[in-house]
Fold:
Amino acid sequence: MPNLIKNGAIVTDDWTLLDADATDIPAGKVIAPLALWQARREMLEQRDHLGVWLDTDETADQLGADAQTLSLIAVNFPGFMDGRGFTTGRLLRERYGFSGELRAVGHFMRDQLCYLKRCGFTAFHFAEPVDLDAALQSLDDFTEYYQAGTDQPLPLFRRRA
Amino acid sequence: MYVYDEFDRRILTQRVQQFRGQTQRYLAGELKDNEFLPLRLQNGLYIQRLAPMLRVNVPYGMLNSTQLRKLAHIARFYDKGYCHVSTRQNIQFNWPELAEVPDILAELAEVEMHATQSSGNCIRNITSDQFAGVAEDEVIDPRPYCEIIRQWSSFHPEFAFLPRKFKIAVTGAAASDRAATQVHDIGLQVLDDPQRGVGFKVLVGGGLGRTPVIGSVIRDFLPEAHLLSYLEAILRIYNQFGRRDNKYKARIKILVRAMGPEAFAEKVETEWQQLKDGYSTLTQAEIDRAKHFFTRPAYEDIDAAAAAAQLQAQASEQRAFARWLERNTRGHRQPGYASVVLSLKPTGVAPGDVTDRQLEIIADLADRYSFGEARTTHEQNIVLADVKQADLPALWQAAKAAGFATPNIGTLTDMICCPGGDFCSLANAKSIPVAEAIQRQYDDMDYLYDLGDIDLNISGCMNACGHHHVGHIGILGVDKKGEEFYQVQLGGRSGTDAALGRVLGPSFGRLEVPAVIQKLLDVYVENRNGDEQFVDTYQRLGLEPFKERVYAKSH
Structure:
């Protein structure tokens, strides 16, 4: 069943997100917690598709330039008031050159999609069931912005003219 | 004053539409209370003790007459006919209907106003000096930088869900700081350095609230071009590492204190080196664009000596006018002009409250006497910044008729006072009745003038919206087993020599407060040297003589 917003469309997720304390790694496309990836990196890197997820208190610096070796990075939002993941997204994109799928997972809300998009997120997997068709509309709550973002590196003052 | 272009209008229109949709979803039961909470807060809407409260931003205190008339209309049509000037220069409406708030925001957008990020865990309204651009002691007009920061911080995608609220103040007159930059999350002092050009001294981690702290300087000189990237670096460190486990430990001051200001500054510096010289570096064109909105109005060439002589003659004829002139007007960098403070502190009115009709009168006075502009102050008054001295007698008469001419600016009865327990659901105690009791006790203007400048600040709880820590006399409402008590502090200052007050001793019941104030004043009057101010006498004598007098057993 379609359960993921990805690149502005509703699709069926084909990745498996492993729990923080997972030890078994199933076949297929998995998103490993950071600690598991660090512990079993050589083995995991043999895979064609590899994702890693960062918890909210894990920073982009902990992946650093290794981010570029991954197909997908997910950032967990334990609650919608916890905005650390917004910075994580920007740093992965702007500082560490990550160009794969950047996915928000957990308890963020629909009304944050536009800002998440501006911070580099391209996929959104809600922990709770939401009306994804309705949520899609929030991606474009704003179409013009004052400051730079990953979607628009030029702040408005450089484009105003 | 800043004027919106098509971009500003489009962004604000989209915001209003976004919030309209969110409100509809909430009213339809599609958004839970806790989900709607951050959304409404970031649009200025609190749920208060009796009704919602809508806080409208007044960017760095600037208002034009069109905006004043719109605020009057909103007060009349959507509220109970009045509003309140807050201690961060904003305007608060106490009785709007939730369902009508999107309409109010749409009306505000028509006059280039908004309630964006006026509350919530995000970057709040930028505050500044109410005499920006006209003060004789100003180095650089801070308002263009305030506007640049306003735009950068509005709808900033990365910093909308910070650990806690975030307040920035900017002054262009660091030697006489009227913006309280030392008690803000970030304080910026604009400098004009002969070698390095225009830039900022950057303070971080100041604040009032439960844990009052004077900010630490983390950078002596930041060239103006790097303003935004440096702010971004500070915010980014805070967003990642500020505490989120305890809301009372979540302000940036706690992080700065935990790391130490030097270590914090280093971390910011490292982050900034990555951001520096990127696209967010301000261009000269952008700085010039911002500055051209804040040029000098079309002042007349005036013979200043003649104007002063005429004013002197008028003042000597009318004592009441002379008093008003002395307390409620101040000097101006333009010869023949003055700035006028309209007092929102007449006895019997909650400090900072203003009615719909009064807002319209202010708009008319601004149009007639001050190039159509007015300013709100963090002391909760209104300033007409550019008044010809020759117009002062007429303005005084008009202000008197409208109730704005109480000649008490800077005196004991020009109190800073939060809405307190009458309105606010956070408050532990009422503050307005305390203010009123003190005003009623001190209705003798001769005595007030003899006391001179005294900042008396009242907060109804430790969140300190009434800035009690930085009042020369601070009063804090506390709750003791369900009863309201008031703690008194002495020696706070909010200006360039910012200091936090010290607690006098055990707290008092509400009815005791005026008598306590009288004892403090008696100690001052008996001990002052010449025209020494209250706070200076306190500094010289220390807490002890005040304490002894107040807590002495009466026999």
